[in-house]
Amino acid sequence: MSDVMTASEAKQIMDLLQSIDKKLDVHIVKTEEQFKTVRAEIAIVKAEIKALDDKVDSLRSELRDDVNELRTQQRSTDGRLWAFIVGLVTLVGSGVIKVLWFDRA
Q: What are the transmembrane regions (predicted)?
C-alpha cells in the first residue's frame, strides 16, 4: 500500500510548517528580548556591586585609620600610666627608706 499525498494535504502540512516557523520566530524574538533584559539587569547589579565594594573599601580604610589612631592613643595612655606607677613606687620607696634609715630623731 502506498499512500499518496493529495495537494490539499500537502498544503495543510506546508501551512502547519509555516505556522510553526512563525511561532518559532516569535519565540526567538521574545527570548532575545529576555536575554537583553537579563544582560541589562546583570550590568546594573555589577555596577551596584562595584559601588558597594568601593564603599566597603572606603569604610575599611576609615576603620584602619581609626584603629591606628586608637593604638597611638593607647600607647600614650600606657606611657603616662607607667610614668605614674614608677613615680609612685619611687615616692613610696624613698619615703620608706627615709623612715627606716634617716629618721633617728
A: 81-102
Residue 8: the pLDDT is: 87
pLDDT one-digit tens code per residue, 51-71: 999 999 999 999 999 999 999
Looking at residues 6-14, what average pLDDT do you find? Answer: 88
- Give the span between the Cα atoms of 30 and 96, in whole angstroms: 96
Considering all CA atoms of the chain, what is the largest pairwise distance in Å, rounded to the nearest integer?
147
DSSP secondary structure of 2-54: -----HHHHHHHHHHHHHHHHHHHHHHHHHHHHHHHHHHHHHHHHHHHHHHHH
